[in-house]
Specification:
single chain
């Protein structure tokens, strides 16, 4: 995950929080949601289409072959294993605890009501 993706994540998170905050406002401040949305779209497009490297840098980088090694394979695998374990625990908790039937108590009197 590069710097641009991290910036997009931060911008969109703050933008959504700002939209939620402004949606509860009254009057002309409520229209600020549209401005925030268009600002986020412009920032996203600028980060997508901004050239990261010049053509010369891309050509020079293609000449030197680098061996790419995934150094995060072990932490990523550990994270996936923990996520699977916790998802399984959550499913078992859901099945055993939340899906227990709730029985109504028996009536103690036989009094009938007429309306």
């Amino acid at each position: 995950m590069g710097v641009g993706v991290l910036l997009l994540l931060i911008f969109w998170t703050l933008g959504i929080v700002g939209c939620v905050a402004l949606s509860r406002a009254e009057g002309p401040q409520k229209n600020g949601v549209v401005g925030i949305f268009f600002l986020l779209v412009v920032l996203t497009l600028a980060l997508i289409f901004w050239p990261r490297k010049t053509k010369e840098e891309e050509l020079a980088g293609g000449l030197a072959k680098k061996i790419e090694v995934d150094e995060l394979v072990i932490p990523r695998t550990v994270l996936v294993v923990f996520l699977c374990i916790f998802a399984l625990i959550a499913f078992v908790f859901l099945a055993l605890h939340w899906m227990e039937p709730i029985y109504s108590p028996a009536l103690t009197s036989r009094k009938t009501y007429t309306f």
